[in-house]
C-alpha cells in the first residue's frame, strides 16, 4: 500500500487510499493525515503543496506466545507488528 502513494500529492494519495478496499489502506491513510497535521502545526508550510516524499513499513517487535497441543507438546505463535513511516515534504515551485 505504501508503494501506491509514494511520490503523489497528499490529496491524491488520500483519494487513492480512501477507495482501496484493504485494511492497510485505512492505517496508512490515518498515518498520512497525522503527518500532514504535524507539518501544518510544526512548520509554516502550504498544505496544498505537500507530497509524499517517503513511505515505508518496517518490521516491529514480535510477541511470542505458546499454544498447547496434544501429548504435552506446544506450538509457538508469533504475533507480528509493524512500524509505518510516512514523510511529507513541500513541492518546490
Write the layout of secondary structure elements.
Elements: H1 2-5, H2 10-18, H3 23-42, E1 50-59, E2 63-68, E3 74-79, E4 82-90
Antiparallel strand pairs: 1-4, 2-3
Describe the structure.
The chain has a single domain (2-90), classed as Ribosomal Protein L22, Chain A. A hairpin with a 5-residue loop joins strand 2 and strand 3. It has helices spanning 2-5, 10-18, 23-42; strands at 50-59, 63-68, 74-79, 82-90. It is built from 3 helices and 4 strands; from the N terminus they run αααββββ. The longest helix is centred in the middle third of the chain and has 20 residues, at 23-42. Strands 1-4 form a two-stranded antiparallel ribbon. A two-stranded antiparallel ribbon has the order 2-3. With 93 residues, the chain is α+β, with helices and mostly antiparallel strands. The mean pLDDT is 92.
In the predicted model, the low-confidence regions spanning at least 5 consecutive residues are none
How are strands sequenced across the largest beta sheet? 1-4
Q: How many β strands by DSSP?
A: 4
The largest β sheet comes out as: 2 strands, antiparallel
Indicate the CATH class: Alpha Beta
Percentage of residues assigned to helices: 25-40%
Amino acid at each position: 500500500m505504501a508503494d501506491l502513494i509514494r511520490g503523489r500529492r497528499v490529496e491524491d494519495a488520500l483519494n487513492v487510499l480512501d477507495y482501496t478496499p484493504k485494511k492497510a489502506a485505512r492505517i496508512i491513510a490515518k498515518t498520512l493525515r497525522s503527518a500532514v497535521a504535524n507539518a501544518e502545526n510544526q512548520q509554516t508550510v502550504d498544505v496544498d503543496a505537500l507530497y509524499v516524499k517517503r513511505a515505508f513499513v518496517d518490521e516491529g517487535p514480535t510477541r511470542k506466545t505458546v499454544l498447547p497441543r496434544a501429548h504435552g507438546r506446544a506450538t509457538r505463535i508469533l504475533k507480528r507488528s509493524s512500524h509505518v513511516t510516512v514523510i511529507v515534504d513541500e513541492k518546490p515551485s
